């Protein structure tokens, strides 16, 4: 009986040992850090120590509690039913799909376990998503509808949201890596207005382009016309210059000819005046007779008397002149 009782207690002790051996085994994955919480005996509470990834640890069960936190990059997508509904500064509703990337600070794992959350799931849903949804909506809602549609303005707001969120997450041991607006949609009624506005803007741009093209065409035609006018003016000026030069040359020739005629006429007139003066002087009559005689010299003159009968006589003009000259 005593032997059986002893065997029984040995078995119980063995079972207790095995239980405590398995219950006291704790480990961390290659991307996890561990946190130990002391429930009984000694300094109770979360131990301010980070248990490194990829290791095994043994703690007395019941007295100790073990938790792990994943240090990998976590992705949170808010789209579909979980999309952000944002009211823009000018009062329009926007439905925005946003993706967040975050990770925990491994050195703050004990702090997270003690004051923030007991697990990755609780940290993700009760802390990260709650803050991200609220504060991101505030930052993006500061934009007007028109500003939100411009990538540069939207990116500035996203960067501002990241900075503002990180200031909050610093208190929880969370590192926010990235915020990205993946897509956004307008309220259907407002989308119709936006579409009509874009169509009108497109038509306006088309008309402006046509006007600008016509303006350029007019400018080209004006330049061509100005070129033709300048060429015609240059041709006309050349013709005018040639005509003036030819007229000046002809005028000079005619002036020279006129001067020559005038000179000749003047000389002739002077000669006539001299002759008249000579004729009016003594001996002028003799000179006239001499000139007359000179003109009749060697010319034969036949004199026919008048009357019924014909009496032909021959006058020797030379002899007559000689007799006149002798006088």
Q: Main β-sheet: number of strands, strand sense, barrel status?
A: 4 strands, antiparallel
Tell me which CATH architecture of the largest domain applies here.
Answer: 2-Layer Sandwich
Please compute the radius of gyration using only Cα atoms: 67 Å
What share of the residues does DSSP label as strand, in percent?
15-25%
The structural class is alpha+beta
**Overall geometric form:** rod-shaped
Look at the structure and give the CATH class of the largest domain: Alpha Beta
Q: What is the number of independent domains?
A: 4
User: What is the residue-averaged pLDDT?
Assistant: 83
Q: Would you report the number of β strands?
A: 11
Helix content: 55-70%
Distance between the termini: 224 Å
- What CATH calls the topology of the largest domain is Tetrahydropterin Synthase, Chain A
Low-pLDDT runs of 5+ residues are 12-23
Q: Helix and strand string, N-terminal first?
A: HEEEEEEEEHHHHEHHEEH
Assigned CATH superfamily of the largest domain: Band 7 domain
**Helix tally?**
8
In words, what does this structure look like?
Helix 3 (120-140) packs across helix 5 (151-169). 58% of the residues lie in helices and 19% in strands. It is rod-shaped, with a radius of gyration of 67 Å. It has 4 domains: 2-68, no CATH class; 74-186, 2-Layer Sandwich (Tetrahydropterin Synthase, Chain A); 188-280; 284-326, no CATH class. Strand 2 (32-38) and strand 3 (45-46) form a beta hairpin. The strands form 4 sheets. Strands 6, 7, 8 and 9 form a 4-stranded antiparallel β-sheet that branches. Strands 3-2-5 form a 3-stranded antiparallel β-sheet. Strands 1-4 form a two-stranded antiparallel ribbon. With 327 residues, the chain is of the alpha+beta class. The chain contains 8 helices and 11 strands. Residues 12-23 have low confidence and may be disordered.
